[in-house]
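pinging the channel bc i need a second pair of eyes. not urgent but kinda urgent?? the chain im working w is below, pasted from the shared doc
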Amino acid sequence: MTTVAELPAGFADKVTSAQSTFRSVMDAMARPGRICRVAAALTAPSPLMPAVAAIALTLFDHDTPIWLDAAIAGHRDVGQWLKFHCSAPVVEDASVASFALIADSAQMLPLERFALGSNDYPDRSTTLILQVESFTNGPALELSGPGIRGTAELAATISPDLVAQLACNRALFPRGVDLVLVAGSEVVALPRTTRLTAKGG
């Protein structure tokens, strides 16, 4: 079992790094499809990508229950690291999670299994933080909606099934989940208001 002393450290400069990461995530949410970089440097416990770890340190706290997919939950060091640095409770029921960390998009739960909020409280939904291999080597997608001037293009390595689920998710507005895709130190946000279609489709 890993001791506290053996866990990877958090931010070297907590305030500056958290502020920088928060700005990057908010910029990504305001401009869906735009690739933003998380500059905060830290050593993330495997299999978390650096930007995912930085987002966790910035957004998670004792009031934000988190859900981990099997690919992450199988690494006990991750749960210990999150508990030590964020005090965020890890839950087994995805439908009560404020955030979900997903490393294996091929095996992820259907979006409907997460908290979708309500018409009165749409903010009581899950934000999914999904690790992907690339933002350039996946199927070409066209994005439109609030925050996008005209259309935007994205080629993230996400499955056609997830694209179809996101169409259903958008139809639930104001309910629904929001996604933050992460590739290494880069992030792209796909809020519930974003429309995704296969380019040329």
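so The two ends are 51 Å apart (CA to CA). and Residues 14-30 form the longest helix (17 residues). — does that match what u expected or am i reading it wrong
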